[in-house]
Amino acid sequence: MSNPDYMNTWVQEPPLDYSFRSIHVIQDLVSEEPRTGLRPLKHSKSGKSMTQSLWLNNNVLNDLKDFSQVVSQLLEHPENLAWIDLSFNDLTSIDPVLTTFFNLSVLYLHGNSIHRLMEVSKLAVLPRLRSLTLHGNPIEEEKGYRQYVLCNLPRITTFDFSGVTKADRTTAEVWKRMNIRPKKAQIKQDAL
């Protein structure tokens, strides 16, 4: 169960920072020393980090195998994880494990190798997701990229480090009406 006082202080806690560590597999985090910042990380009595931010950017990860188990080993409150930075890795898809962190509000996936735009829809189950980055992935080249993301993730307020405006939402809605067929029509057409 989440501790509300803990949730209120997360912004003040420095991240658990494993950026630029040449990490190939998530399991390596257990033996790797995180980077030290200006402020020391707070730890629980069990030795786990009290942060809600995990930075894994600029590594060579191509999957998130064992992510939940490793995060549970590193963080005192893994259920409160609010910020995950996986930018500049070699991920080719959005692993469903990311959708299990319901307090996730910031997710950086820019500079990876995600090539299927439909991957984005997996993130729709995250109720608190407000900031997402995907630029620098092959999906960015697909027609309607921004509109597709905004249609599937209507709660985000920042996308690719740019604020989402009312005009963006309107454009996304128009794009949706023009490009996404209703399920009934799709079934009928597929049957022909």
Tell me what the structure shows.
Its main location: cytoplasm. This is Leucine-rich repeat-containing protein 51. The chain is an alpha/beta fold and 192 residues long. Helix content is 23%, strand content 9%. The protein has five helices and seven strands. It has helices spanning 4-9, 67-74, 145-152, 166-179, 183-191, and strands spanning 16-17, 53-55, 83-85, 106-108, 131-133, 158-159, 162-163. β5 (131-133), α3 (145-152) and β6 form a beta-alpha-beta unit. α3 (145-152) packs across α4 (166-179). It is elongated. The N and C termini lie far apart (51 Å).
Please tag this protein with its features:
disordered N terminus; seven-stranded mixed beta sheet; Leu-rich_rpt; repeat; cytoplasm; alpha/beta; 5 helices; about 10% strand; 7 strands; Leucine-rich repeat-containing protein 51; about 190 residues
> What is the average of the pLDDT values?
90
β-strand percent reads 5-15%
Q: Catalogue the unreliable spans.
A: 1-10
Overall spatial form: elongated
Q: Percent helix among the residues?
A: 10-25%
Biggest β-sheet: count, sense, barrel?
7 strands, mixed
| Number of H- or I-type helical stretches | 5
Query: Compute the gyration radius: what is it?
Result: 18 Å
* Count of distinct strands: 7
Q: Tell me the span between the first and last alpha carbons.
A: 51 Å
| Class derived from helix and strand content | alpha/beta
Strand order of the largest sheet: 1-2-3-4-5-6-7
Write down the secondary-structure element order: HEEHEEEHEEHH
